Amino acid sequence: MRLLLHMCCGPCSCYPVKRLREEGLEPIGWFFNPNIHPYREWEQRLNTAKEFAEKVRLETAKEFAGKVSMEIRTEEQYHLRDFLRKALAAEASENGRCRMCYTWRLSEAARYAAENGFTAFTSTLFYSIYQQHDLMRETALRFAQRYGVEFYYEDFRLGWQEGIDISRYLALYRQPYCGCIFSEEERYSKEIRKARKKLAKEHKRQLLAVTG
After folding, report:
1. Which three-class secondary structure state does DSSP give residue 141?
2. What's the pLDDT band for 40 if we cut at 50, 70, 90?
């Protein structure tokens, strides 16, 4: 199987690559993440993805089944303006911004895989415990069918802590937020965190009222 692995970043790739190699697969990485803000953060993650691809060939990286560097292809055009136009238009609908972001990246992964002779594609998005897993899977399957390529599904979340340990072992840059300007605000804004905490308490109160 010729497998394309859409890479969000280097750290998120650690466990998926290890797992795929254990299954006898040698994925080819593809970095396409127009959501990342600001430019220097996007550049840092791009460079870290390349660094990861090179480091996994090290004999001292015993966590990996292979000892060759991972092939990686990268989309090195910064698409911030396109992302903002799409994200702001999607904000009004439920899960709109994240749904748009998953759709853009996974549809492009499926298209790229189909146009470049890959049997299947998958994504390190399925490693994150913070993403909307079922929505992403539904999206990936839809575009796999549209482009006539297989979606290789695996729940990489099972190796969440192992992936963190590997990324630290390899001394990779670890980002503190998802990537987009909205997630950066959500990560650091005290007002948003306070509002979310208040909303969570209200949801809990309503649930207790219903269940008695």
Report:
1. helix
2. confident
